[in-house]
Amino acid sequence: MDHHRQYRSIFWPIVLLGVGAVWLLSNLGYIQAIDVGFLVRLWPVLLIIIGMDILLGRIAPWLSALLGLAVIAGLIAVLIYAPSLGLTRPAELNSEKLIEPIGGASAAIVDLRLSLDSVDVTSLSSGENLIEAEMVHYGEGYLNVSGEAQKKIVLGTENLPSGNTWFTFPSIGTGWKTDQYWKIGLTDRNPLDLSVDGSLGSVDLDLSKLQLTDLNVNVSMGSMDIYLPQSTDRYDVDIDGSAGALKVTLPAATNLSLHLDGSAGSSTFTLPPVYDLRIEVLDGGLGSMDLPEGLNRVSGSGDAQEGVWESDGYDAATYKILIIISHVGPGSINFR
After folding, report:
1. Rounded to whole angstroms, what are the CA distances from 257 to 7, 187, 238, 277?
2. More confident residue, 332 or 165
């Protein structure tokens, strides 16, 4: 006879009931609205709580119940003390337009520190401005500029926790949409060294007409679509996929070197119709990888994901795309 007791946790029912009640009170205005982005950044705490529930719940169900009550009490405490912690939402949306002219600059270093907002980045096909940013969001935007021959530009949001912007818990049926957005235009007349911190938002980077010398991207936990430009001169792209969803469209007739840390997110690369490609995988990790057809394996063996793959004639090609994957991670990497 099996005398083992079946593990039945009552932690999650208690947490779901508590979160539902807190969410309802927030929508009704009885509890302060707080920065959801701040809470999302605490996701590692959830892993700790799940582990504690597994350990305590197997000892006694009432310990699991106490843990659930403690989690709800902690959430309510955060909401109560939100004003003193700086987590409350500002009263209204701000609309801003920030502009920096090219002036005497021949090149620029641009650092875009994004947030939860929806962001579109495109090229400025004409005009005398190096950057134009239209922002509708909570808080206050800033555009810091230094240098003359090579301008250094930093665009972001101040008076908010780093990497976050503000919005309330969404009401039932509204989803996670907000009225916040950034529309950023960058000059196509000057070479740019571009850095983008995607944070938790949805980002569309149409860089297809820009003169990139370097691109550094942190996808974080949001989603990001990147359209890379053609270039006879080789440029470097460095992407940290983190836990977000990444889509990269690679151009034809270009020279670029792309370094990817796939991390826990999903990464999809759309290849041009004709390409000369080399893929180097340094650490296969725990994730999945779907390589394009027609590549020759020049190092590595068996089912191991580590190795090097090349298209025919890569060494002698005029235009080369090199992709170095430092770590596949628990996510997925796919080529189309």
Report:
1. 51, 23, 8, 10
2. 332
